[in-house]
Amino acid sequence: MQYAIVTGASRGLGEAIARQYILQNINVIAVSRRGNQKLESLAKEQGREFHHISCDLSDMDDLNEGLHRISEIAFHEDTHYVYLVNNAGVIEPIDTVGDLEPETVQKHMQVNVTAPILMINRCIKEANDRDIDLGIINITSGAAEKTIHGWSTYSSSKAAINRFTETLALEQEEKGHTIFAYSPGVMDTDMQGEIRSSSEDSFANVDKFRKLKEEGELRSPDEVASVLMNLLREPKKIENGKVYKLYDLVED
Ligand SMILES: NC(=O)c1ccc[n+]([C@@H]2O[C@H](COP(=O)([O-])OP(=O)(O)OC[C@H]3O[C@@H](n4cnc5c(N)ncnc54)[C@H](OP(=O)(O)O)[C@@H]3O)[C@@H](O)[C@H]2O)c1
């Protein structure tokens, strides 16, 4: 049996990735605060398992409980492969340093950095104890490699996840796991809506992002998820620890 654990599968890119896994006959464990009725119905139609783990990744108790339930469902004697897609993410706080709200920074780091690290930590332990291969995909951002006014927290959390991915790949060199980060480019999701609603004081480049939407430059999450699935089709060609960028994987 194969499972795909997808965080943030209630909407946006996570929903699109979970949908593609279901269509490939892979059982899905969706982790988010809200559920997704459409995915649940699709899994039923396809005869696949769909588990929604209701979990606020910014809350340590919720995260620990979620990890326990995920392990029970995904790692058993009939499991031969598990994907873990660390996709859930937040962009806020968008603000300049000095005006950052402490609780928002703390939650941001917990969702974007601590939760993916602990998800991987648990899955590596369960998989290595049972000789199960993993496919670990960390969703990152071009912001990890850019300095953007107002995005200090987001750029830092995505840079941290890139470095974690590289270190993990180094440590797991002898194992059969596939481990990489995927930078999806700009997509038409709620996160872009949040970015566009920023003030110019908080985010100097807000106009550029408003134009991307007006000019139809945002990709659909379905298209971005398909590019990821194409990459996963040839796992032997994947370089562990690398950041794969959508812009390098598509024609235009
Ligand atoms: N959109 C872009 O242009 C863009 C560009 C580059 C990279 N990315 C990255 O792509 C990934 C997906 O982004 P998106 O645009 O699809 O975002 P989105 O539409 O805002 O969706 C975010 C997802 O994360 C989940 N999430 C947020 N906070 C959570 C929490 N505290 N606990 C559990 N789940 C939580 C949400 O689920 P619930 O609200 O149901 O909990 C939702 O499913 C993120 O890692 C993002 O950084 C996005």
From TrEMBL:
Family indicated by similarity: Belongs to the short-chain dehydrogenases/reductases (SDR) family.
InterPro entries noted in UniProt: Biopterin_syn/organic_redct (IPR051721), NAD(P)-bd_dom_sf (IPR036291), Sc_DH/Rdtase_CS (IPR020904), SDR_fam (IPR002347)
Gene Ontology cellular-component terms listed: cytoplasm
One Gene Ontology molecular-function label: sepiapterin reductase (NADP+) activity
Compartment(s): Cytoplasm
Gene Ontology biological-process entries: tetrahydrobiopterin biosynthetic process
Signal peptide: none
Keyword Oxidoreductase set for record: yes
Name of the protein: Benzil reductase ((S)-benzoin forming)
Entry keywords, A to Z: Cytoplasm, NADP, Oxidoreductase
Family annotation (Gene3D superfamilies): NAD(P)-binding Rossmann-like Domain
